[in-house]
Design goal:
Largest interface: A-B, 119 and 119 residues
Number of helices of chain A: 18
Low-confidence stretches of chain A: none
Organism (chains A, B): Qipengyuania polymorpha
Strand order of the largest sheet of chain A: 1-11-10-9-12-13
Radius of gyration of chain A: 25 Å
Enzyme class (chains A, B): oxidoreductase
CATH class of the largest domain in chain A: Alpha Beta
Largest sheet of chain A: 6 strands, parallel
GO molecular function, one term (chains A, B): histidinol dehydrogenase activity
Cofactor (chains A, B): Zn(2+)
Distance between the termini of chain A: 75 Å
Oligomer: homodimer
Structural class of chain A: alpha/beta
CATH topology of the largest domain in chain A: Rossmann fold
Number of domains of chain A: 3
Family (chains A, B): Belongs to the histidinol dehydrogenase family.
CATH architecture of the largest domain in chain A: 3-Layer(aba) Sandwich
Number of strands of chain A: 14
């Protein structure tokens, strides 16, 4: 953990190092993934069988080994503890409602020269969703990725998830039932992403691949960008909390640790103008490590990447926060709106002291798949738009073509493209 | 050129080969580009100097060697032929007007439990635009890429363009003046994309890189996806014309050749139910080759990738067209709306016999940067959204947190994330 003061002489150099720290994967992963993608592309299912045996100790042989049926998902759903089932349903309903409001509107109008112009949105036909296995198998992630796809209108939603030693996660199956997943395959890693992108004998290819995963999965998505659409390159996640002096250190400690407990590479940052609060929060975090079941991961993250920045005034906070362009920004101040108005780069913002980031992870409604690694400078959270595409259209009348065609002919000639010019001038003669 | 009939026994196999044909670059380009990116990342300007000398025979030494001033762009604009200047201004005004209609709306509402939810859109701070040099230096491309960035609200718009042997293109400079480009550097190739993404001593890094280029530029963008935002992976372009029997073969020949003259890897496709029209168009194209100044490129494209598909009924056309998911689709029929309604995957559609594709390249208003290589299945044309990002936000009251917090706590506990649960439960106790 680093404690920096903006008033210190070496602040700029040290803060800049934090901003530039990438916490990301290496070239060896890139080569390994590239080899796996080629194998799956060339050999299809037989490559999946080999990799799944090697990496997941799972034999793909019978239909049940390969896929999880809708009936199995329904059974997992029925078997859930009633309160947990209701919690999942509440989350799903709220996520659905928020994402329905994202559906884009078509355009279709005729301008002053009689030219019809517009754009029409439509869903992709098929989407693939990667769901991690083992400890990181989160039903909330399934809901957050699958529901926007279904709201967008995707007809075929395919999940791939590793089942190490054959083990399945009932919560994930139940979430798949709620979200209306159409197909579910028991493969994971880069090989699963390759199967979704290229297609194999068993798994028909999709148009878009989304979902979280480890470094191999993220790298596979990066390499396959352009072959299929992908949601984004996901890296270790961040929380940045901007807090005034009137905060409960126990609340803020929990907020910071809720990011740190995800992964040793996660990053938790506190910006405050109150030295006393900073000390209290740091002390509280040390206390939490004594009892928190996830202390090992959380402590490693906090020790290696944790950051507390003391500012003279909270007015400094938005600019610092923008440089970090964090995935999650909590504004725990009396007037959160004032700072929010000055903030420019963040995946999602949590306004006020009663809004812990975790409420957004599960149940508020907006997506929890958000840009990480400073990518909020240019990227957005997952939305229905990731599962849709837009077709523009143009309809000219003879009058409209007469009005602007000659200018286009002139430009085509200037660019040395005579067939372009002819295609217009012949219609005007 | 291939002529296929849907009624032939081997149609499916042959058509499938066309759909799968990728016309794209090889692994060697990937390795070359990877090396260039590393050099620019490590050595900055000095790498740019070396590559620019080697690839463009241009020495980067004085400020004038490095960049093109706003004054130089203004002078190029002032020096243009008046009609050409007016054509560029008309195009710019129409492109600006169409893209202003794309600006997304923010959301901000409070739901039935008192939870405030929403999303706020904002522009990226800086965007880089690659403009090819030499023969493919198109002022229309500059307008199509730069204007959406400015409409989105990008403050710093940087152009990189190679100037082989020092040669600049006045039309491109004039277009930069019209579009309001802020900085313009005389570097090209993968090295220019690397400079935009990583930044060098002279060129500050940007957040998004857009613009067309050769295979090296396209591969550089692909490899840097995630380091910066990129518009899309661009490949060879396509036109697909759906025509009924009542068409002028001279018009359609020009339309097909307007794509073929771009590049030998471009693809022009005609789908018609009229054998006579197909023959007339093919004959006309052969005639054009005798006089068209761009015949060499156009003939190679038509010979290698041209395709004529004879259908029994035009009702077959939308499904065939969707499999090709072409960049440009012209519907040259009496009732274009009927087929357009059945079409699902296309970059842009040109409705009716008076709408040649070239009118969209220059002046209609919608963007001419469109998904190629079957990517219209999942990708969209360039828009203001490529230069913007969305920040979601959540604001809970105590009442709202009480209403849904317990469900989130339950889910966090089920996922084995105790700090997540604590961050909510502590605020409820």
């Amino acid at each position: 953990m680093q404690l920096l003061r903006t008033s210190d002489a070496d602040f700029e150099a040290k803060f800049d190092r934090v901003v530039r720290d990438r916490r990301e994967s290496d070239a060896q992963v890139g080569r390994d993934v590239s080899a796996i993608l080629n194998e799956v592309r060339e050999r299809g299912d037989s490559a999946l069988v080999e990799y799944t045996k090697r990496f997941d100790q799972h034999n793909l042989s019978s239909d049940e080994d390969w896929s999880i049926s809708k009936e199995a998902c329904k059974a997992a759903y029925d078997g859930l503890d009633a309160e947990l089932r209701e919690a999942l349903e509440t989350a799903a309903a709220r996520i659905r409602s928020y994402h329905e409001g994202q559906l884009p509107k078509d355009r279709d109008y005729t301008d002053d020269i009689g030219m019809r112009l517009g754009a029409r949105w439509g869903a992709v036909e098929a989407a693939g969703l990667y769901v991690p296995g083992g400890r990181a198998a989160y039903p909330s992630s399934l809901l957050m990725n699958a529901i926007p796809a279904k709201v967008a209108g995707v007809e075929r939603l395919v999940v791939t998830t590793p089942t190490p030693k054959g083990e399945m996660n009932d919560l994930v199956l139940a979430a798949a039932h709620i979200a209306g997943v159409d197909e579910m395959y028991r493969v994971g890693g880069a090989q699963a992403v390759a199967a979704l992108a290229f297609g194999t004998e068993r798994i028909a290819r999709v148009d878009v691949v989304v979902g979280p995963g480890n470094a191999w999965v993220a790298e596979a998505k990066r390499q396959l960008y352009g072959v299929v659409g992908i949601d984004m390159v996901a890296g270790p996640s961040e929380i940045l909390v901007i807090a005034d002096k009137d905060n409960n250190p126990e609340w803020l400690a929990a907020d910071l640790l809720s990011q740190a407990e995800h992964d040793p590479t996660s990053q938790s940052i506190l910006i405050t103008d109150d030295r006393g609060l900073a000390s209290q929060v740091m002390d509280q975090i040390d206390l939490e490590f004594l009892k928190l079941p996830t202390a090992k991961t959380a402590k490693q993250s906090w020790d290696d990447h944790g950051l507390v920045v003391l500012v003279d005034s909270l007015d400094e906070a938005p600019a610092l926060s923008d440089r970090l362009a964090a995935e999650h920004v909590e504004i725990a101040t009396a007037d959160p709106e004032a700072l929010f108005g000055k903030l420019r780069h963040a995946g999602s913002v949590f306004l006020g002291k009663m809004t812990p980031e975790a409420v957004g992870d599960y149940i508020a409604g907006p997506n929890h798949v958000l840009p990480t690694g400073r990518r909020a400078r240019f990227a957005s959270g997952l939305s229905v738009l990731d599962f849709m595409k837009r077709t523009s259209f143009i309809g000219a009348t003879e009058g409209a073509l007469k009005a602007i065609g000659p200018a286009a002919v002139r430009l085509a000639e200037a660019e040395g493209l005579p067939a372009h010019a002819l295609s217009i001038s012949r219609r005007l003669s």
